[in-house]
Specification:
227 residues, alpha+beta, globular, 5-stranded mixed β-sheet, 6-stranded mixed β-sheet, Fumarylacetoacetate hydrolase, domain 2, single chain
């Protein structure tokens, strides 16, 4: 097969303990999946149907650096559990959902909050606030065979050693199997999909020179420098 120009390279993420990279297909993100975060963003924390937005595969950045983006003066950190799929399908039942998981990673959903707020106010999509370059720093994917399926334990973010976000995975309104099942009703999931599962309360701004430490029970720490 020939193309008009060279196609972009496949986005590959490091996998702990393996030389082979994890090839990324799509990136899905669930919004307001921790009650305390829903409250701090001015929303009702009741278990309403989940909603999703997307980032681009090349927004994922495993380098450990986050270049502060332009056109924003209010970029926020959001620590999240990332789920990496090895298979997929449509209408996946909750009981089978975890069978499609390859592994997990510590990730950040960096957000140009000012631009997201403008989009919300105008009833427009969130891409300028969510899907910009380097907006998803992510640590190494850790296979299920090594870490199991994290479902409880601390999820935290520190800036220069000071705790800013603190929650527990069991505080997710929609758990990982439910997220996979619900998402598969609207999209055909497949190997290579990444799902960011929501952030606890305490989101806030970052500045150039900040050192972020994101941690999730069972997955360890992931350090990101804001440059």
């Amino acid at each position: 097969m020939t193309y008009c120009f060279s196609p972009p390279p496949v986005i590959g993420l490091p996998v702990r303990g393996q030389k082979a990279l994890f090839p990324v297909r799509r990136v899905y993100c669930i919004g307001r999946n921790f009650a305390a975060h829903a409250i701090e963003m001015g929303h009702d924390p009741d278990r309403e149907p989940p909603f999703f937005f997307q980032k681009n595969p090349d927004n994922l950045d495993p380098s450990g650096n986050f270049p502060y983006p332009g056109n924003s003066n209010d970029v926020h950190h959001e620590v999240e559990l990332a789920v990496a799929l090895k298979s997929g399908g449509s209408d996946i039942i909750v009981a089978d959902a975890l069978n499609h998981v390859f592994g997990y990673a510590v990730a950040l959903d960096m957000t140009r909050r000012d631009l997201q707020g403008q989009a919300k106010k105008a009833g427009r999509p969130w891409e300028t606030g969510k899907a910009f370059e380097h907006s998803a720093p992510i640590g190494p994917i850790q296979p299920v065979t090594a870490v199991g399926h994290p479902a409880t334990g601390p999820i935290e973010l520190l800036i220069d050693g000071q705790r800013r976000q603190s929650g527990n995975l069991d505080q997710m309104i929609w758990k990982v199997p439910e997220i996979i099942s619900y998402l598969s009703k609207y999209f055909e999931l497949a190997a290579g999909d990444i799902i960011l599962t929501g952030t606890p309360a305490g989101v806030g701004p970052v500045q150039r020179g900040d050192r972020l430490t994101a941690s999730i029970a069972g997955l360890g720490d992931w350090n990101v420098a804001v440059i």
